[in-house]
Request: fold
Amino acid sequence: MTQEITLSQGREYLAIPGPSVVPDAVLRAMHRASPNIYAGELIEITRSLIPDLKRVARTEGRAAIYIANGHGAWEAALSNVVAEGDRVLVLATGRFGIGWGEMATGLGAEVELLDFGKQATWNLDQVAELLRADREHGIKAVLATHVDTSSSVRNDIAGLRALLDAEGHPALLMADCIASMGCDRFEMDEWGVDIAVTASQKGLMTPPGLSFVFFNERAAEARARMKRVSRYWDWTPRGDPQEFYQYFGGTAPTHHLYGLSAALDLIHAEGVEHVWARHQRLAEAIWAACEAWGQEGPLALNVADRTLRSHAVTALRIGSPHGTALRDWVTAHVGLTLGIGLGMAPPGDPAWHGFFRMGHMGHVNAHMVLGMLGGVEAGLAALGIPHGTGGVAAAAKVIAGARQAL
Reply:
C-alpha cells in the first residue's frame, strides 16, 4: 500500500502580507512577566519608542500610539481632523483604499471616491481636474494609500503632494503606510505628508495590536479647529503626554511595547535605507520567478509595471480554481502559507479562487524567499498547472547579483 508523504513538518512559514514573521528577538522580549505600569523600565522604553518610530516614518512631527489594528489607525487619523459633514477625497487602487473611505463614511464624512481599479495607480490628471473644480476648497483631506495590500499597487505619494501644491489646494494629505512602512521607501516630511498611519504587524515585525499615527503641525492645527474629538482617539494627549497612561488612553499594551522596542532595534541596527534596499531586491527576485513561470500557463503578476509594484507584497492572478488549489497544496505539503486574493473578486464568485498573494515584508531574508518560491514551483508541478521553467533559478540569479547593486 502506497501512502502519500507530506513534507510540511517543522517550522511553518507564514508568507502572507501581515501578520509577518516575528523575529526571535521580538518573541524573547515579549516572553516575560507583566511589568509595573507606574514606574520603572517600561516607562523609559516607551519614551525611547517615539523617536525610534519617527526615524522609521522619516518625520520630525509627532507620533501617537494606539492599542488597535490598522483599521483603528484609520479611525484615529480621521477622528482628529474630519468632522461630520466634511468632504474627503479617497483615491483607491484596491480594497484597502476603499475601506478607508468606508471608515470615513461611517464617521459621517461626505466621501468622494476615485477608484482606479486593482491594477493601476492614480491618474493624477483626473485628480487635478477634480481638485480644480473644488473652487471653494471644500475637500478637507485626501486619503491616499501608499501600498494597497490587496492589489500590491504602490502609489506616488510625493507626486500627489506636488499636485496639491501646484493646484494651491489646502487639503490635508493623509497616507496609509500600513503595508509599506519599514518595507518601501517612505519619506513623510520630504514628501509633504501631513498624516501617516501604520500598524505593528507588517514591516514593524511585531504581533498585531498596535497602530501609529504620525502628524505634522498643519494636522495639529486642523485638530485644534475641531469642535470635539472622541476622548480615546484624540491624539493630543498621546502626542504630548503629561502622564504615562496618556500615551495609550489607559493601561499600556505592556508586552507589545517590549516586542516593538526589540523590532525597532533590529531595524535601526540594519539601517532604514538598507531595509528598503533588502525588500526591493527580494521583491525583484520574486518577480523574476513569477515572470519565468508566466512564460507558459496562466500565472501573471497583478501589476504589470515594475515601478508600481510594492516591495512588501506581490499579488498574482492564476485563474480559478488554481489560486486556492495552490495555496491548499503548499500548506499541506510544504508547510507554507500564502495569502488569499483579498478583494480581487466578489465573495461567492468562483473567480475568487483564481488569485493569491505572497507576503515578503519585515523579517525576511534570501533563503526564506527562495524556500517560498521553491514551494510554489513544487506546487505548480504537483498540481499540473502549466508554467514556464526556471522560476527559482531566475530568482537566485537576482539574489546572486545583490552585492554588486548595493
Summary: The chain has a mean pLDDT of 96. Residues 272-293 form the longest helix (22 residues). The two ends are 54 Å apart (CA to CA). The longest strand covers residues 139-145.
